[in-house]
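Milestone M4 deliverable, item 7.
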Amino acid sequence: MLELAIPEGAKNILCLGAHADDIEIGCGGTLLKWIAARPDLRVRWVVFTAEGKRAGEARQSAKVLLGKSAGKVVLKNFRTSFLPFQGTKVKEFFETLRDGHEPDVIFTHYRDDRHQDHRLLSDLTWNTFRNHLVLEYEIPKYDGDLSSPNFFVPLDKHLSHTKAAHICRYFQTQGNKHWFAEETFLALMRLRGVECATQYAEAFYCRKLVCA
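Output delivered:
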């Protein structure tokens, strides 16, 4: 297995999430690991549907997770679960993401995710950023749409538990959902760890990787 650290020379990270907790669930452990290794990283954090209490949760969570690294948190208030029906406005906003910001790595949703908001963001990511390293993260859910990722980031036990606890601490409005629990997040990371011969890991779908 070829082991890759954060891409050499990468400084700008773009994180895209349809909902307030998506980025943390999908790639929170990887971000914590990379930020610890590279304090000079600049992270642009974009949440497309963040209203009411969820906006406050999203902002506070991102602030804590990013720590002292340079970061910009952008919260939009598109209507949740209706992103495909607001496609024109969402697309117009995507076009602004390239203004003055050229990401080296982009985290976005898995293209075959069954949630309509997630799929739209993934499609628009590829439509907008044509020559970038895009890593599609996964979100566990009732739909049962987990698949076979091909890009793994090993995480140690401490980091994995830190991620799981962070999500449940900062997104308490979601605590009434039957799946929203530390055990869920740890279980998925443990499973992905098995698949890459380590204890815990986050996994991504990498459709194009150029090795120079």
